[in-house]
Amino acid sequence: MLPATTPASIVIAGGNVIGLEFACLLWALGSRVTVLEILPTILPNSDERFAARLLSLLRGRGVNVQVGARVVGIEQAESGLAVRYQTAQGELTANGELVLLATGQRPYTDGLGLDTLGVVMNRRAIAVNEYLETNVSGLFAAGDCTGGQMLAHVASHAGIVAAENALGKHRVLDLRAVPACIFTIPEIAGVGLTERQAKEQGVEVVVGRFPFAALGRALAMGETEGQVRLVCEAGSGKVLGMHVMGPHASDLIAEGAVAVRLGLTARDLAETIHAHPTLPEATAEAALAVYGEAIHQRKL
Fold it and tell me: For 52-61, what is each residue's pLDDT tens digit?
């Protein structure tokens, strides 16, 4: 638990979603922040361009972000704590008034008596089928205790599906289009495939993009960092993924989630009237850009 007062300095172990959200929050409150990430990049599951841009922004703000840094020990120091971490250049030390461990999540199922009931487990997670039923007839489970995508909105949705099935329905949990939102400064959100993931699957794609710097509403808000990116199947224009970095990204991603789940095309989005002046206009422009038709961006 963080103290009631803002720490003068903090070392955060973990450069994924939770670690970077706290890094941005505490930086904004005036703390000196160090982030240590064991992988060679931050936000490994997000759009790689947005991850690289956020890394650049954080470092430009004075946040000390170290990638390829494996924490090997935490020790008491004269003023706070000293975190020893290993890098390709050898062992280094980062000092902070506090240390925040943000290295991931795992299901917490201790003390539920599951072994007594004979519930089959998948390591720490409760094993369920596509209807969220366990191996024990009539016993359903939903949320973080089942592992997978441990997000509040996934747990809430799964809870509804599990409750309906417990009452006699036969509804499959549909996780084809789960939006992931990162509340950094600026926000990042994504749903479906990134450009890299699509190419790794052998899918030929075309990417439509539109920067907030060219959007009237973002200019009026003074929040022009970032862009909307639509990853679409070449030829058909089917939306495979949508990724946003910028103001209200967590709100804008909803349109992308609908598009991915329903198999809509960029043309479907482009020909849908978007209100002006609003942020979702960037989505419509990105959809037009898939076909080289964006009209509010200078073409060089």
Answer: 999 999 999 9
